[in-house]
Amino acid sequence: MRFSLRQLEIFVAIARSENVSLAAGRLALSQSAASSALVELERAYDCPLFDRVGKRLHLNSSGRGLLALAESLLAQAGEIDDYLGGGRPGPLAVGATLTIGNYLATLIIVDYMRRYPDSPVSLQVANSETVAGRLLRGDCDFGLIEGEVAHPDLLVEPWLADELVVFCAPGHALAGSPAVDTATLARQSWVLREPGSGTRSQFDRCIGSRLPAFRLALELEHTEAIKRAVESGIGLGCLSRLALREAFRRGSLVELPTPQFDLRRHFYFVRQRSRHPGLAGRLFREASLAVGGGAGDTAGLQLPFIP
Known about the structure:
The chain has eleven helices and eleven strands. With 307 residues, it is of the alpha/beta class. The strands form two sheets. Strands 3, 4, 5, 6, 7, 8, 9, 10 and 11 form a nine-stranded mixed sheet that branches. The protein has a two-stranded antiparallel sheet with strand order 1-2.
């Protein structure tokens, strides 16, 4: 073979960042060493992999074809290295959406690190759109998301069933209603997640589309901020039942039944289709399933106190 795994690693880093200097920094190399490795790989096969535009590098068709193969081979090589080194999983970067990141991901990571204390895990928490983008760029290895993602380069697998719930403060005029009709909901003010989140996408699709010109009082990026705002009486909210279970138990928030809407959804495992999951990815997926304890949905999860 006329290539080395190190050359492929450098090629992938440059392809993902479209910049030799940034790629070199990520790999703790000098810019000249990274550039030389790429040139050697291209010359070995007389096959340019990038179009040079100023200081930017853009993958050409040959480079795009190689990228998926190179990432898969590097992942498998890492797994071999883990196996020969005693079966220890390597580092893992996880992306999680906010509900999962706030209420489940840390529990999974704690369990995982108890089993594999020498295998570091980093957690990036963002909305579904951002997590999907990080997976596509190769900035994280494994995703736990609550929004539906449709991209040909992502492999999406259902994990846990969940549902959204409309809720209000206990002192709100609608509190205690046996059911709230759509016309009444259309007259209310709402505190919602930001566009790009799975929760907001489902609200817009299932509820917002049937509430002409509803009032958006606040748009917030964090579930806890939404809960505090709704507790203050500013309007209604719509979040995962998982995020609301303790607030409902305490009585600081109350559910508003809306049987006219189907608010069921799923949490998902997601990763790049072309990338081999590796030992760390497979073990983390197993740890995620173990936290569920056999429950098929978030309502059946046995979890510690959630504030």
